[in-house]
Amino acid sequence: MIRVAAVGDVHMDVDVLGRYRPSLEQLGERADVLLLAGDLTRHGTVNEAECVSREFGDLPVPVVAVLGNHDYHSDQQHEVTKVLAAGGITVLEGEGITISCRDVKFGVAGIKGFGGGFAGRCASMFGEQEIKDFVRTTERAATRLQAALLSLDADVLVALTHYAPVPDTLLGEPLEIYPFLGSYLLGQAIDSAPTALAVHGHAHAGVERGVTPGGVRVRNVAHPVIRQAYSVYQLDAASPARTPVSQGAGRGIDSLSHDV
Amino acid sequence: MVSEPKVVDEYSDAEVHRILTEDGTICEQGIEVIRRDGAVLLRGQVETVHRRDAIGDRVAAMFPDKHVHNDIVVTAVADPSEPEVIT
Ligand SMILES: [Fe+2]
Ligand SMILES: [Fe+2]
């Protein structure tokens, strides 16, 4: 059994410092790991990253994060990542890690992800270069997420993204902005591995619970959605592993182009 | 003589949304701006009282002749509820 605490979209700046600390004091008793689902800062500055590091660093459990779109706003995502890492927070962008916890090998693969939309209502690799670049960005993210998930040898496998892998957890958001909130390609990547849970943020007006077409439970942990300091999910290593879903007819992620 | 350009609500709504996102002192994407009977109603969630008030002030400055109802709430940071068991 492993207890996964998670929150996203904390949008830290000096004015938020200390808000989460009271609830984080008991984190060690409630959870074995804390996942941060991106949009950790307001504008993606080094100063704000230092606030994240102060608020979510120095905790009794490992802290694993992905960045969100806000964390890229100042083009300082590399510096932001460095500040978080210096504070003991592991930032994933297309990588995975395993954490051993009471005989359970817990694996988490993470990436920010990108938009693009959902099956039947999504952008395609067609037309202007700008549209192709948009779609290619999502495809690359999905390919890297899939590779990271499949590279992990874990008893319990979790996918961590900022953008949503399914439309279920966007309920409450305007339909018109769904293509900017996530992509079905992320869901397809999650379904291709024996993933037990997918955690994301970004959709502040969405809902907490969803499921991928392949049956993986999805949780939107954006702070305005969960309305508490973090949520805790308990996952059992003994439960039968879900069978990964093949890509079905047509193009799978395996066949996506990787040309730069 | 050229008449004054007509203010089209839909364009000014679009501008308000963009300002709330792109103004470096605000940077909020999910705020609803609703116009009712000459008033402006703001809805959404932010992390601090300071951010809520900054949005209210910014929108009030954009609509000097309208009353702004600021119904934005500060998201709670309460202790977590019981863990959800995922089987
Ligand atoms: Fe956010
Ligand atoms: Fe976001």
How are the SSEs ordered, and which strands pair?
The complex is a heterodimer of chains A (260) and B (87).
Chain A: E1 2-7, H1 21-24, H2 27-30, E2 33-37, H3 46-56, E3 63-66, H4 77-86, E4 89-91, E5 95-101, E6 104-111, E7 117-118, E8 121-122, H5 129-151, E9 156-161, H6 184-191, E10 197-200, E11 209-211, E12 217-220, H7 223-226, E13 231-235
Parallel strand pairs in A: 1-2, 2-3, 3-4, 6-9, 9-10, 10-12
Antiparallel strand pairs in A: 1-13, 5-6, 7-8, 11-12
Chain B: H1 9-22, E1 32-36, E2 39-43, E3 45-46, H2 49-62, E4 67-70, E5 73-74, E6 84-86
Parallel strand pairs in B: 2-4, 3-5
Antiparallel strand pairs in B: 1-2
The complex binds fe (ii) ion (2 copies).
One fe (ii) ion binds at residues 39, 68-70, 162, 202 of chain A.
The CATH topology of the domain at 30-77 in chain B:
Alpha-Beta Plaits
Q: Quickly count the helices of chain A.
A: 7
Structural class of chain B: alpha/beta
**In the CATH hierarchy, what is the architecture of the domain at 30-77 in chain B at level 2?**
2-Layer Sandwich
The value of Rg of chain A in angstroms is: 17 Å
**Helix count from the secondary structure assignment of chain B:** 2
Specify the biggest β-sheet of chain A.
6 strands, mixed
Rough outline of chain A: globular
CATH architectural grouping of chain A: 4-Layer Sandwich
How are the strands ordered across the major sheet of chain B?
1-2-4
DSSP summary, beta strand count of chain A = 13
Shape, principal axes of CA atoms of chain B: elongated
The CATH superfamily of chain A bears the name Metallo-dependent phosphatases
Biggest sheet overview of chain B: 3 strands, mixed
Stretches with pLDDT under 50, minimum 5 residues of chain B: none
CATH class of the domain at 30-77 in chain B: Alpha Beta
Give the N-terminus to C-terminus distance of chain A in angstroms: 41 Å
Question: Quaternary state, please?
Answer: heterodimer
**Beta-strand fraction estimate of chain A:** 15-25%
Q: Which molecules are bound in this entry?
A: fe (ii) ion
